[in-house]
Amino acid sequence: MDRQLTFEIFRYNPERKGETPHMQQYTLEEKPNMTLFIALNRLREEQDPSLVFDFCCRAGICGACAMVINGRPNLACQTKTKDLPDKITLHPLPTFKLIGDLSVDTGVWFREMYTRTESWIHTSKTFDPTKEEERMDNSVAEDIYELERCIECGCCVAACGTARLRSDFLGAAGLNRVARFVVDPRDERTDREYYEVIGNDEGIFGCMGLLACEDVCPKNLPLQNQLGFLRRKMGITALKDLFKKK
Amino acid sequence: MMKTYTSSVPGVSRLDAGLDWLQMLTGASLILFMWCHMMLVSSVVISPNLMNAIAHFFEATFMAQVGGPLIFLTFLVHFALAARKIPFRVEGQSTIWQHAKMMKHRDTWLWVVQAVTAMIILILGSIHMWTVLNDLPITAAKSAARMQHFWWFLFYMVLLPCVELHVSVGFYRIGVKWGFVKADQRKGFKRFESTLFTIFMVIGIITLIRFLMFG
To answer: Do A211 and B178 touch (CB under 8 A)?
Structure first.
């Protein structure tokens, strides 16, 4: 027998004057293989066209449908209703700017993060389009790709206690981004240069090790290991610097 | 909000790294100390004479007279360093409280436990150290006399679980935060940490009971 699902959905449109944030209830009959993405679309099509939420790829690639599902940030398109209880509570991701209802602006945050981390290959070599590409060891390429898989959904940032307490914290997504360049042999930045970017409380030393990022990441990125790696690397860089100084 | 412009360019500082190192090292030292402390105190369960002998050794070598205040200092420094991360304003406290309630995530709750026990340990731990260090030498009889006093017994019944919780969560946190424990070892390490907590709690309670029955 199909279950009757109850949705408690956060509603608020900051653009509309006089509106206050509130929870709204909807009910929907569960169907086989139903994901939250399907459920939300049905709610919007059949019950409430004013419901605001984001989606794009419906395959866990674009990261647009991230939201807080029964308290945990996750992707709506990858969450099956059969794994959830009868009552499903949905909130927008905290930390990010609210656009309306379940939709937040992660773009501005990630753009800022990319600027701060200087998220590009720093090299002194001039690019020659006629030349064959430089070869890279397959294992190195795989290591880079492993960290490059981030879809920028913002779940790790929304789940992060530090990011909730201080808005200037880079978050696991930002630190993972830096780790990706540390692994990349084409990037000529030294440890000291990376230290300038993340060797502070807005960066790696702000991380309190709550590891919610690791536990909620929908792409299962190795965030715990990367954060530990960066903390040790940056900690040792600072120590080396201390002893080098005359 | 994050700054979108550069109003000034601060020089690279080693301060945050240094403070983080110190927070970890003072924490690790205090964990080691607490384990040794438990061994000293619980030796009374085997024999009060053994506890007296160990205590005497620490005094004869001046480790209690010098080491005691040093531990007190480490304790205060560790608090000051870790307090950098604890929200002291109601605004921050309610944010992290709501966050923990929303997430229902064990490690996030454990952090709240760490912060709350830190405050209790700061006060009760200071009182304990002040009392003990002002009344050297440490002997099983004196400790037992204190424990047989109702309010002191209550005092230690609060302090003991707080310390054991703080120590075991802190031990776990250092491991995962600094990457000594990798993701695939985390579950096992967590179990190890819970076992450690249970063992120390049991030893602690047995010791308290032994002191109650002393003399």
So the answer is: no
Asked whether A66 and A155 are in contact (CB, 8 A), the reply is yes
A225·B183 Cβ contact <8 A = yes
| CB pair distance less than 8 Å for A235 and B16 | no
Question: Which residue is closest to B170 within chain A, CA to CA?
Answer: A209
| pLDDT one digit per residue (tens) for chain B, 215 residues | 455 655 555 567 888 889 999 999 999 999 999 988 888 888 877 888 888 888 888 888 887 788 888 999 999 999 999 999 999 999 999 999 999 999 999 999 999 999 999 999 999 999 999 998 888 787 878 888 888 888 998 999 999 999 999 999 999 999 999 999 999 999 999 999 999 999 999 999 999 888 888 76
Residues in chain A: 246
How far is A147 from A183, CA to CA, in rounded Å? 9
Nearest to A232 among B13, B108, B179 (CB): B179
- Distance (Å, whole) CA B171 – CA B164: 10
Among candidates B18, B105, B177 on the partner chain, residue whose Cβ is nearest the Cβ of A209:
B177
**Complex confidence, ipTM:** 0.87
A72, containing H or E segment: strand A72-75
CA distances from A138 to A123, A134, A141, A221, B106 (A): 21, 12, 5, 19, 37
Residues 6 or more apart in contact with residue B41 via CB below 8 angstroms: B51, B143, B207
Whole-model pTM: value is 0.88
> Among B3, B107, B182, whose Cβ lies nearest the Cβ of A212?
B107
Inter-chain Cβ pairs, chain A and chain B, closer than 8 A: 112
d(CA B138, CA B129): 12
Per DSSP bridges, beta strands A22-29 and A4-11 are antiparallel
Q: Which of A117, A205, A220, A226 to mutate to test the interface with B (most CBs of B within 10 A)?
A: A205
Q: Which residue of A has its CA nearest to B83?
A: A208
Helix (H) or strand (E) holding A2: none
Q: How far apart are CA A39 and CA A3, in angstroms?
A: 13
